[in-house]
Amino acid sequence: MPQELLAAVEQHCRWTSSYCLPVAGVQVAREYGACLREWQRLVSYALTDANAHSQLLIGTIAAFLQQQGVEDDLIRRHLQSPGPDRYVTGDALAHLAGLLGRPLPEGTVESSWYSIGRAIAQRDSAE
Questions:
Q1: Which of 15, 1, 22, 19 shows the shortest CA–CA distance to 119?
Q2: Residue 124 to residue 127: CA distance in whole angstroms
Q3: Dihedral sign, CA of 34, 36, 41, 46?
Q4: Residuewise pLDDT in 10s, the chain (127 residues)
Q5: Do 55 and 87 form a contact (C-beta atoms < 8 A)?
Q6: Which of 37, 60, 70, 89 is the most exposed place for a label (fewest CB within 10 A)?
């Protein structure tokens, strides 16, 4: 397993936790519990942001496994999904390319996730 991919897992888990912890705890409820509309807005934003990081990370790992020649059935079982390709988006492919210092795959639109992947890899190599 490339160190850069492990660094990405660690970083995305940190980001996901930073979105989920205030929601899971009493902080948001205490501050906004009296205003249901504001509470709903904050909880929804936090959970969808956390979900976006999780989905991207799942797709990045699935794309890596596909590129390594891991059988589709095994990837399906690991992801507990009949269609693992739904996770392997252009953003996930760009993120993986950035992490591994590769050029963007042909047909992939450059996204900020490519740059974020590069930054995670560079930060990891500096440590």
A1: 15
A2: 5
A3: positive
A4: 889 999 999 999 999 988 887 776 566 667 766 677 877 787 888 889 999 999 999 999 999 999 999 999 999 999 998 887 889 999 999 999 999 999 998 887 778 999 999 999 998 777 7
A5: yes
A6: 37
